[in-house]
Request: fold
Amino acid sequence: IPAGFDFDAFSTDALLTRMEVKEGRIVLPDGVSYQMMVLPRNGEITLEALRKIASLVQAGASVYGTRPQRSGTLHDLEHMVEYEELVNMMWGRNNTPQGCSHYGKGTVYWGMSLTDAVSKAGMMPDVTVPEKRKFYYAHRTLWDGEIYFLDNHEDTPLAHTFIFRTSKRYAELWNPVTGKRYSLQSTLTADGRISVPLQMAARESYFVIFSDAQSTGQLPVKEWNMQEKTTFIQGDWTVDFSEKLGGPGKVVFTALTDWTSHKDERIKYYSGTAVYRHNLMMDDKRSESRYLLRFDKLASIARIVLNGREVGTVWCSPWEIDITEALETGENKLEIYVANSLMNRMIGDSMLPEDQRITYSATSIATPGMSLIPSGIIGSVQLVRQMSASNSSDK
Reply:
């Protein structure tokens, strides 16, 4: 499938009972529509299906596929004259290895790549996705707008100017992790599409919404070229592992390492919630800046409490959270409640007598040879000050 296009597979029954053509597009009863139909590569199509395809092409559909060679059913043998005539009307009588043929209001393409057929049909990509990287998207059209879901499916950040196949003028970014909405800068291209520059963190995803009406509320404009000043949080951390769950209680971490690499087996095989505590110093909080708490690696989920105020939960990319409202000038009491998978405790328990185990399962789930799942805060925790470009001169 060419980049920037999506597809659905369908059965012969769906072809016969659910498809019609409106304004050159193949349309289903639920409103989903398609610009082109792709036929089986083996050239095997029943007469009943061929009749339906012919009616769709005649009504204006575009079809791409190998010239049908046979029906594949004994029932159609006595109707091969009709079968061959339908093929000749759509693919031409000369049986050329490559070409396109007009039949009624529609066109049939064959013998070329699907990318070439799409180009010849004048089809524009739904969205211009980045080349040579794993990137996914989904698109839904509403009566008053367009919804695009974008997914940077790689472990590296992305900056890309996306061109969306829509003429709706106003674009918004909806962040599914924070629930925040932003207005986006957009440009109308020469061919009537909308160009929007976007940046995404590794493994980040969000929605881009288009409409012809501006939002009733005054949404902030999303700034991509924010200036950042990063401070690595230094010093020891007190970490409290619940003794009821087999942990050692309070211990001191001089470095933020994976629990599974710890020498103490009460930490190595710990499962549950452990509380990291650290006193964070803020010399001078600037009112014009935003402050983020950012993690190198977090396994698996963390609830952030700052100065007794619950800030929120970090559980996915971009592994950061805005702590601006709770942060104060001077000393700040930071608590991070980190929870991991139950599997590590079950692996540890599998090596113990039953009367010493913390977990229980009717049937064996874990065995001593299984790999432990990384857990805890791993690497560094960073305090990130973000400034808009207009304020970046004041470091």
Notes: The first strand starts at residue 20 and ends at 22. The chain has three domains: 12-120, 135-224, 229-391. The chain has a mean pLDDT of 91. The chain is about 10% helix and 35% strand.
